UniProtKB/TrEMBL annotation:
Keywords: Membrane, Transmembrane, Transmembrane helix. Pfam families: Peptidase_C39_2 (PF13529). The chain crosses the membrane at residues 18-40. PANTHER family: PEPTIDASE C39-LIKE DOMAIN-CONTAINING PROTEIN (PTHR40524:SF1), PEPTIDASE_C39_2 DOMAIN-CONTAINING PROTEIN (PTHR40524). InterPro entries: Peptidase_C39-like. This is Peptidase C39-like domain-containing protein. It comes from the Bacteria. Residues 65-192 form the Peptidase C39-like domain. Gene3D superfamilies: Cysteine proteinases.
Amino acid sequence: MIRAIANIRNLSPWKKRVLYSILILFCVLLLVATPFLIYAGRVYYIKNFGIKLTASKDYPVTITEYYRQNDPQWKDDTIGNSGRKMGNTGCLISCVATAISNLDVPITPKELNAMLTRNDGFLGADLIWYKINEAIPEVDYRYSRIFNSKTIEKDLEKGLLPIVNVRYYHTGITHWVLIVGAKDGEFIICDPLDNGTKTKLLSEHGKVYAYRVIERTQ
C-alpha cells in the first residue's frame, strides 16, 4: 500500500490527473449502481430463498367459498394448448378466478381458462399475466418483485386477495395460494388443492417466493 502511494506521487502531473479522473469515475459509477445492485440482490433473494410473512393485526376472512383446481367441473380441462390438466397444475388459474370473482366479476376457472386460451394467454401451461386484462377488461393484475407483510396487509385493507407463490408443504413443489385474511400474526389462505370450504395458515407452506394481486380497472 505504501509503495503504491509512493508510485502515485512519482507520476507526472498529467498521469496523476488521468488516474484521479478514473478513480472519480469509478466512484460515481459505484454510487449510481449501488441502489440497482441492492434491488437486484433483494429480488434474487426473494425469488430463490423466499421470505416469511407475518401479520401485524387481524383481518377478518369474508370469503365463504373458493375454487378448487380439482373440481370435477373442470379438473380434466386442458390449460391452454399445453396438454396439462387443471386438476394437476391449475392452482394459479383457480386462485385468479377466485380473486376476480371476489371483485364482483363472477367467473369460474373453466371460463377463465377458456377466455385466456382464446386470447393466447398461456405460454405452455404458464399464465401470461398481462393477458388477463385483454380477456377481462374489468380487471388487471399488479405485482412487485420486492414485497413484504405490509404489501399484503395493504391489499387486504382494500378488500383485495393477494396471490402468492409457495413451496407446497415445504416439498419444493411450486404452488399458488390465495391470502384471504389474518389472525394472531398468521396470514390465512385458501388453498386450491383443498376442498373449497376450509382455510389454513400460510405458514403451513412456509416462505413466499412471488406475489401478485388482481384489482378492478373500472
